[in-house]
Amino acid sequence: MENSFYSTFDQATIPDRQPDPYRNCFEVDRDRIIHTSAFRRLQAKTQVFQSGEYDFYRTRLTHSIEVGQIGRSICSYLKKSSKHLGEDFHVDPNLVEAVCLSHDLGHPPFGHNGEKTLNRLMREYGGFEGNAQTLRLITETIYSDFKKRSGMRPTRALLDGVLKYKSLYSERDQPENHFLFDAQKPYLDFVFDGKELAKEFLTPDAKNKFKSLECQIMDWADDTAYSIHDIADGIRAEFITVDNLEKWASSQKLTAQESAHVESIIAIIRQGNVDAMLGLKIGEFIHASTLQERSNFMSEVTNRYRFKLSIDPAKQEESELYKRIAFDIVFLSTRVKQLEYKGDRMLERLFEALLENYTRRDQKSMRLVSTKLEARLKKAADAPEKARLLCDYLAGMTDSFAIKTFRRLFDPGYGSIVDIV
């Protein structure tokens, strides 16, 4: 049965691509994401704890898979529960899964701190942002060859789905995050088909809040996954213990409901069935979503802007509480901060060494990257373009590859000619 929720406007690709005889365009989007090296590399990128420390901690890959599953479940729940949807008019779960699986593709090694480091290093070259890097990957890098860079030719709906933020770097005052690269404005124009944004969406913050329905679903699936799973991983790593949680709660001004949620986590820790009990929360968060109609300058063009996702405020508050607990007890801990400091120093030294070699030494530069990347660096028009290419290289590294590259370049006692890749 054909799904009339989407039109040719939503299914358009940039640039055009041939239709598939046995998959719809959103299934193609999803499958193209899954079969990329960028997606596979997420298995060795930090989610909370550095990849490889223990087998059972989440990585960016397992997190993305979990977000994809939650996103599909939200679609299924909305289809069954919303008066607006039905068998022939519903949110496509393949599209939402593609958006969810894509959402962290652009994140660099060493978690969010690595993102902050690259943004600081790229400040004079247009900044760095994980979501903007995801857009760069799917539009310019994935499945591209050396001569023609057109990315995976994503549909307009997928492209819009990964755009958590729509303001440009130059529109914000030295932003820490939540922006697109200035060079990505053509993709923003494509998403809106060249339409001028309405007055209420002209400020950077308003732009960032104007999201497609699929992007909103991905956002809530992401919040659901990491707010609950960061707690689970924190408990298993023994950062979050009964004593630590009670001490934290005593230092906060918690509402009665927030205190009840803390007591619930304490009970889960004491019972020992962390995954089973916290897993039930995922179902509660999925069922907290409803569909509402909205009116804006795009709502007559596509159902993706005719409808919005609404979340039960009580569940949003619960999610925010879990984030606070994880942030204060886990992410602000000395052990995690020491690892963040080390990752920051490594990325900084790698970036400065590569930038020095390829932008300041002219013909005397040494080959420190692959021949393919070096050829692109030589063809780059100026230092900002070279810096962006080198930033792409660092952002694409896994945690372990970044550490190995650092040691190979700066540790006199490490590496040999046979382990160069």
CATH homologous superfamily identity of the largest domain: Hypothetical protein af1432
- Give the integer mean of the pLDDT values: 92
Which fold does the CATH topology of the largest domain refer to?
Answer: Hypothetical protein af1432
Question: What is the rounded Rg?
Answer: 22 Å
SSE pattern, N- to C-terminal: HHHHHHHHHHHHHHEHEHHHHH
Distance between the first and last residues' Cα: 49 Å
Helix content: 55-70%
Description of the molecule:
- The protein has helices at residues 8-11, 25-34, 37-40, 60-81, 93-102, 111-121, 130-141, 156-161, 185-191, 204-209, 213-236, 242-250, 256-271, 274-286, 303-306, 313-331, 334-360, 371-379, 383-395, 399-410; strands at residues 289-293, 307-311.
- It has 421 residues and is an all-alpha fold.
- It has 3 domains: 8-209, Hypothetical protein af1432, CATH 1.10.3210; 213-334, no CATH class; 335-419, no CATH class.
- A two-stranded antiparallel sheet has the order 1-2.
- Helix 4 packs antiparallel against helix 5 (93-102), helix 11 packs across helix 16 and helix 12 (242-250) runs antiparallel to helix 13.
